[in-house]
Amino acid sequence: QVQFVESGGRLVQAGGSLRLSCAGSGRTFSACDVGWFRQAPGKEREFVAAISWSGANKDYLDSLKGRFTISREIAQNTVYLEMNSLKPEDTARYFCAAAPAGTFLSGAYRQVRSYDYWGQGTQVTVSS
User: How many angstroms separate the CA atoms of 43 and 21, rounded?
Assistant: First the structure.
């Protein structure tokens, strides 16, 4: 069982920054590829960013490149999502998800169905 908890979401003004954390417990999380997704009310869950188990490979939703940064702190067993220049359209519940190692290299990391484990999410609200 892969376990992790998201945190860091809150209300922020447009133009502000947030760092979301996905803290894993146990060695199994460190062996997973990890993705961040978001879901706004009435919309489908959307891929945001992903990182391979080693941290060597990363990718982002094209429209978020340059504003969002995913990183992985192996020693702390935590994956971060740094979000800058936030816009009201970034308002959503953000979910961390874990997939088997190799998912990133297979190219399937943008798909919700590729991830076996999901957190409860953390709410990000950006006011205009």
Answer: 23
